[in-house]
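2024-03-11 09:14:02 DEBUG pipeline.ingest accepted 1 chain
2024-03-11 09:14:02 DEBUG pipeline.ingest length=69
2024-03-11 09:14:03 DEBUG pipeline.predict start
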Amino acid sequence: MQQLTAFNKLPDDRHQPMRQALVQLMRMPEEQREVRLNSNAFKNNFSPEEQGILRDLSRNLPQDYLPGR
């Protein structure tokens, strides 16, 4: 998965906020996740590249992918 590779190559200072956002997004029902992904707060906190990574991974990774990592 190309986005997972991009996620892993993020600068160190972006790993924690990205991981937190991804976990939150993956725990949301689909409708709530879409609202969050389209919110101004989300767009202001993450670059367009980061937004794409979070959008793709939150839609495609299994829900239990991150908790044990």
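2024-03-11 09:14:41 DEBUG pipeline.report The chain has five helices and no strands.
2024-03-11 09:14:41 DEBUG pipeline.predict end
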